[in-house]
Specification:
transmembrane helix, SLC26A/SulP transporter domain-containing protein, SLC26A/SulP_fam, two-stranded antiparallel ribbon, mainly alpha, globular
Length: about 325
């Protein structure tokens, strides 16, 4: 293989955006800008919810939705793929880190950054070694089954928040549900009503206007209700103040023993996350007629997670958002 061919292949792998930036038309900016605003409108409330699902303060969902999407867009192979926080990854982060630290603490948050860096290194290594085709050997049924199970667990873990009930943390889901049933008489009615209002808004908009950002509208309406009627005085939990500005530079670091204990979960998170991302890739590719470069996607997602970890992001992946 000649030096020119090697140089061309390496350039396309490390700087894929050069190929489309040269051909970008200013006339496309208006549509791209509208698409960006639309995605942001959905991503803002979604990312905060996913951060809470991962056991982190909501602001870290915004951080994960700031730098990683930019990096993923520049280094990925599909122009329509959105990179950011995901439900399945958030739950895996929670289950991985809970045995090591109390969710929401500074140590827990720092471990989430380390986990993001490790996932990124694994992705980048797979992409650079051209091992992306190994994804074709992962069972689609297994991924679907895993995703469905995670969806049920997510629903179960969010019911206490929906009812305004505080339950203890359990290693397994059934003891938590049993405790929840025992505490049902102490459900907080104002919180339940607010949850039902938000659920109704999302349900009916999804039914009659599926392309409308129902989650954003639910956030706006319920937030207005909280401010207008001072509902926080009725003990309805609110997100609170969000720190201003962009995420500060942070170097993800931990001791050797902790990093060693995270290797196994890193592989699981990376494979499950990318299997779902790859499914989205194939669906978008079929619609846009763009060819999916699996190795390039690994590089893109690896760069997004690695760079994101230095800007206070936990593991992210590709989605339809």
């Amino acid at each position: 293989m000649s030096t020119n061919i090697i140089y061309k292949n390496m350039s396309s792998l490390f700087f894929p955006f050069f190929s489309w930036i040269r051909d970008y038309k200013i006339a496309s900016f208006r549509n791209d800008f509208i698409a960006g605003i639309t995605v942001a409108a959905v991503l803002i409330p979604q990312s905060m919810a996913y951060a809470m699902l991962a056991g982190m303060p909501p602001v870290y969902g915004l951080y994960a939705a700031t730098i990683p999407p930019l990096i993923g867009a520049l280094w990925g192979s599909l122009r329509q793929l959105a990179t950011g926080p995901k439900a399945i990854v958030s739950l895996l982060v929670l289950s991985t880190l809970t045995p090591l630290a109390e969710p929401g603490t500074a140590h827990y948050i720092e471990l989430a950054f380390v986990l993001s860096f490790m996932v990124g290194v694994l992705y980048l290594g797979i992409g650079l070694l051209h091992l992306g085709q190994l994804m074709s050997f992962i069972s689609h049924s297994a991924v679907k089954g895993f995703t469905s199970a995670v969806a049920l667990i997510i629903i179960a873990t969010q019911i206490p928040h929906f009812l305004g009930i505080t339950v203890s943390r359990h290693e397994f889901i059934f003891p938590m549900l049993l405790e929840l049933v025992q505490r049902l008489p102490s459900a907080h009615i104002p919180t339940l009503v607010m949850g039902l209002v938000a659920f109704s808004i999302i349900y009916f908009i999804k039914k009659y206007r599926p392309n409308f950002p129902s989650g954003l509208l639910a956030i706006v309406i319920t937030s207005f209700a909280v401010v207008a009627f001072q509902l926080q005085d009725r003990e309805i939990a609110i997100v609170g103040m969000i720190p201003k500005g962009l995420p500060l530079l942070n170097v993800p670091f931990s001791d050797f023993n902790t990093i060693s204990s995270l290797i196994g979960p890193t592989v699981v998170i990376a494979l499950v996350n990318f299997a779902e991302t790859y499914s989205v890739d194939k669906a978008l590719s079929a619609k846009s007629k763009q060819k999916v470069n699996v190795d390039q996607e690994f590089v893109g997602q690896g760069m997004a997670n690695m760079v994101g970890s230095f800007f206070q992001s936990y593991p992210v992946g590709g989605s339809f958002s």
